[in-house]
Design a protein that fits this description.
mainly alpha; Arc Repressor Mutant, subunit A; 13 helices; elongated
Length: about 290
């Protein structure tokens, strides 16, 4: 009840603020622009508080405190007053409307749900217009299916029907906590998070894979030491580089035929195989 009383007091104060004539508004705007006259800026802002209240009322169906909506709108109003350029000969209310709406919309997007949505301009338009467009289409033609309504809305707002369906499902119900129990039985029934599937490997699997990779790298370095200089060069060029060279190109570089390169490579691979098997057997024995 205290909140309702405060809201009524706020609305009454806003509605009682005197209007500004165009010439007076221009004079106050110039005083702020030229001299940073805080009193002039505040008078412009207070004269347009009714605009803030009116615009905040359009966002009450999102379930957020009306007083907070008005306060956020007032922040946008002050921003508009600070940026207003009187030399453009535009009424302040026209200019301020965009800033007030943007400030309130940003507040709604940040606080309507703990899950952030509407990050792009198209998604914001969908978030704030979906209910109105859906109701309008349903009233115009009650034979339209849900899929047809989604397609029509997607065409009007420039988003995909999938985005429309997803946003509709979000707006249709509250957020559900993953820590909430699955049934009224409480903790004994388990929590939603207990049934989430994580496709990532477990920590012990990650640690095991890391240890195995380190061990293989050590074995490979030891095995490479068993090769002579030419064998090592061919293995590195052919097998250990991201873009392995061809037998022909490597043969030209070494001054030998590609068949000779293939023979040396084959012999080097056999030596590596034997060296790696020896180390594997030694590790198994030590374990």
């Amino acid at each position: 009840m205290a909140t309702t009383t405060a809201d009524r007091r706020m609305i009454k104060l806003a509605m009682s603020a005197p209007y500004l004539e165009r010439d007076e508004e221009q004079a106050l705007a110039r005083a702020w622009k030229a001299n940073k006259d805080q009193e002039a800026r505040n008078r412009i802002a207070m004269a347009h508080m009714r605009l803030v209240v009116s615009m905040a009322g359009k966002f009450r169906n999102f379930g957020l405190p009306f007083g907070d909506l008005v306060q956020e709108g007032y922040i946008g109003l002050l921003e508009a007053a600070a940026r207003f350029e009187p030399e453009r000969q535009v009424r302040f209310s026209t200019y301020a409307s965009w800033w007030i709406r943007a400030s309130i919309q940003d507040y709604v997007l940040r606080n309507w749900s703990i899950v952030r949505g509407g990050t792009s301009s198209a998604q914001k338009a969908l978030f704030f217009n979906l209910r109105r467009l859906r109701s309008k289409l349903a009233q115009a033609d009650d034979t339209m299916s849900k899929a047809e309504i989604y397609r029509e809305i997607s065409d009007q707002l420039g988003v995909s029907p999938t985005d429309v369906e997803f946003m509709d499902s979000r707006l249709s119900g509250p957020d559900s906590s993953l820590s909430a129990p699955l049934s009224s039985e409480g903790a004994s029934s388990g929590k939603r998070m207990d049934f989430l599937i994580d496709d990532h490997p477990l920590q012990d699997e990650i640690a095991e894979s890391s240890i195995d990779m380190e061990r293989r790298n050590q074995w490979l370095h030891v095995a490479l030491d068993s090769l002579n200089e030419r064998e090592l060069h061919i293995i590195r060029e052919r097998r250990l580089e991201d873009d392995g060279v061809t037998l022909e190109a490597l043969g030209e570089k070494l001054g030998i035929s590609k068949e000779r390169v293939r023979q040396i490579e084959s012999r080097a691979l056999e030596k590596l195989k034997i060296a790696l098997l020896d180390q594997h057997e030694l590790a198994a024995y030590q374990a």
